[in-house]
Specification:
There is one protein chain. The protein has six helices and 13 strands. The protein is α+β, with helices and mostly antiparallel strands. It has one domain. The strands form two sheets. Strands 2, 4, 5, 8, 9, 10 and 12 form a seven-stranded antiparallel beta sheet that branches. A six-stranded antiparallel beta sheet has the order 1-13-3-11-7-6. The structure holds zinc ion. The site of zinc ion has 9 residues, from loops.
Length: about 280
């Protein structure tokens, strides 16, 4: 390995933020704060351990994911309920908001739509911040545990990774072919998962989630949503995943409607305004 003479100077260059968010359109959080004080519950789904469940949320409603019974991580996929081609874009959400998201930050959709699908309206784990290892909660850096990587590393067949749980639940909810559902499942929001990158090797790490029964993360649906949530086979992700070894618990998903007239003047965000001519 040959280091250039000015290696130290090159490494000392100060970083700049890739996507400064000063011009990013922001949601009216004071409106959402007001509206969420007067909600009517409209439904619930209990997601069994090592399984996934689907739920639908109209634009302007809220959904809440709550830890019940024991610490448990969830892997969340979001789709436009009327166009499954519009789905959560973990990578761009990370580029805009950072590696982990909390209250006031948004889940963005893929190209060419690139608009907020959901806004986090409340997060009881927002106190966690960033710990001494660089870990934080609700990440958009992990992809989802999946049987392909597991097979690559172990040679085993395991069918209850989040990727398979999400695939089964999407197939059962929509009636789409299993193969189509498999291809529609995408990188997730890792709800309640505590993760980061090691400083010495840059490797993705996980540690026991700080979530406790009663903790919840709540979202405002910016568009009509189909959500699919997997209760990860890693449980609280303190040691292993992609197996039946970890203690796993259910997750509760509840949906809530706002009071009549509470959102007067509010409308769903439009799809992205780029003209899509790509220079031709
Ligand atoms: Zn998982």
């Amino acid at each position: 390995m040959t280091r250039p003479e000015d290696a130290a100077a090159r490494k000392a260059v100060e970083p700049v933020i890739c996507y400064p968010v000063e011009t990013l359109p922001r949601p009216d959080m004071s409106l959402y704060e007001r509206v969420r004080t007067c909600l009517t519950k409209t439904g619930e789904v209990v997601v069994a351990p090592r399984e996934a469940g689907a739920f639908r949320v109209p634009a302007g409603s809220f959904f809440r994911i709550t830890s019940i019974e024991g610490p448990q991580v969830g892997d969340l996929n979001l789709f436009n309920a009327h166009n499954l081609g519009e789905r959560f874009y973990s990578g761009k959400t990370r580029a805009l908001h950072g590696t982990h998201i909390t209250t006031g930050e948004q889940m963005w959709s893929n190209f060419p739509y690139l608009r907020p699908m959901a806004t986090i309206s409340h997060d009881t784990l927002c106190w966690y911040g960033i710990d001494e290892f660089g870990g934080s909660v609700h990440d958009v850096i992990g992809t989802r545990c999946d049987p392909h990587t597991h097979h690559l590393l172990s040679g085993e067949q395991y069918h209850h990774c989040c990727h398979s749980n999400l695939t089964r639940a999407l197939h059962l909810e929509t009636g789409m072919a299993l193969e189509a559902a498999e291809l529609a499942v995408h990188d997730v929001l890792n709800v309640f998962m505590c993760t980061g990158f090691t400083r010495d090797t840059g490797q993705y790490f996980m540690k026991a989630s700080p979530v406790r029964p009663g903790d919840f993360i709540e979202f405002f649906a910016e568009i009509d949503l189909l959500g699919v949530l997997s209760a990860c086979p890693g449980g609280d992700c303190s040691s292993t995943h992609s197996s039946d070894a970890a203690a796993c618990y259910p997750l509760l998903v509840e949906t809530f409607a706002p009071a009549d007239g509470a959102l007067d003047g509010w409308s769903s965000p439009a799809v992205n305004g780029y003209d899509r001519t790509h220079g031709l």
